[in-house]
């Protein structure tokens, strides 16, 4: 092989001598050295570009952290610049990169710009600012009342949402869910606690409920109805509207509440006046109509429009104003001026109920005047 190579390369040499062999290796060594030099330059150039890009990325991240830290008044170690796309070409910026928040409603993205090279890119960031929060000090079951004694203060990421704070415990709060020791306390775990009342013995329908027949408990607002919001004094002055088992959470429908109402103390025939002699104010435990009268004064100067049975509550719809004056009756007209009062006997020219204005005639002078009915056989001047 060497003889053939020598014949082609060194055509003026007749045979492949030691001199030829040495000459050939020298040429190959030179070519190899040139090749290595070229490759080295290429590698160094690539390494230089990569180092330059690495420095640019590092500078960009540093500028972003510095600007966000200054703008939001937080520590740089609380800021993380999210991974940049490897395809993103970041130029070396002679001055610092210009950083800004491009969106008003979020701080999760910054706009980075190199003004001289007219380069810009949107870069994601995360802020891990620490804030005070609470964790549970022990395992607790749903329905448990939560107090500050059941919590310990810890620090968590500010981005954590729905965390419990001390203000949430200003009211009595009850757990909705089972929680574990060291679990982060959240608002959704709790609801406002309200006082309800539970029977501690069986009660029969119509039986009077005493203060020793029930106890107060705190339950989650989400687990009770508005009908179960009662007052202890009202319950202790009521009767059971149905049979109640021990452990029943009382509601309005379980009770017949004591009410003071005006009832007929005897049968009151239709047309008869309501007076303190045929009525009295009594305790009443059944359901009553909204227009039920509560006192004798509510029925003053009234007569019943239908017969009322003894013991029945009297309603506004059962009565009407009664006639205080009848046409042709002799009535007294009282006229008052300051401390002066003059009473004159008059003749009623028309019927009149309490408060009604009627015509009156003076039998001596025949003068006709008007008066206001103020009671049986009585009127007063206008």
Key words describing this protein structure:
single chain; 382 residues; alpha+beta; Type Iii Antifreeze Protein Isoform Hplc 12; SH3 type barrels; five-stranded mixed β-barrel; four-stranded antiparallel β-sheet; 3 helices
Describe this structure in words.
The model is unreliable at 5-16 and 44-49 (pLDDT under 50). The protein has a 5-stranded mixed β-barrel. The protein has a 4-stranded antiparallel sheet with strand order 1-4-3-2, with helices on one face. Among the domains are: 193-252, Alpha-Beta Complex (Type Iii Antifreeze Protein Isoform Hplc 12), CATH 3.90.1210.10; 259-321, Antifreeze-like/N-acetylneuraminic acid synthase C-terminal domain (Type Iii Antifreeze Protein Isoform Hplc 12); 323-381, SH3 type barrels. It has 3 helices and 24 strands. A hairpin with a 2-residue loop joins strand 23 (368-375) and strand 24. By secondary structure, it is an alpha+beta fold.
**What is the highest CATH level, the class of one domain?**
Alpha Beta
CA gyration radius, whole angstroms: 51 Å
Fold-level CATH name of one domain: Type Iii Antifreeze Protein Isoform Hplc 12
Share of residues in helices: 10-25%
The major β-sheet equals: 5 strands, mixed, barrel
Instruction: State the fourth-level CATH superfamily of one domain.
Output: Antifreeze-like/N-acetylneuraminic acid synthase C-terminal domain
Number of strands: 24
Poorly predicted tracts of residues: 5-16, 44-49
Please give the count of helices: 3
Distance between the termini: 152 Å
Could you say which structural class the secondary elements and strand pairing correspond to?
Answer: alpha+beta
Chain-averaged pLDDT: 85
Order of helices and strands: HHEEEEEEEEEEEHEEEEEEEEEEEEE
Strand content: 25-35%
Shape: elongated
Question: What would CATH call the architecture of one domain?
Answer: Alpha-Beta Complex
Name the strands of the widest sheet in spatial order.
19-20-22-23-24
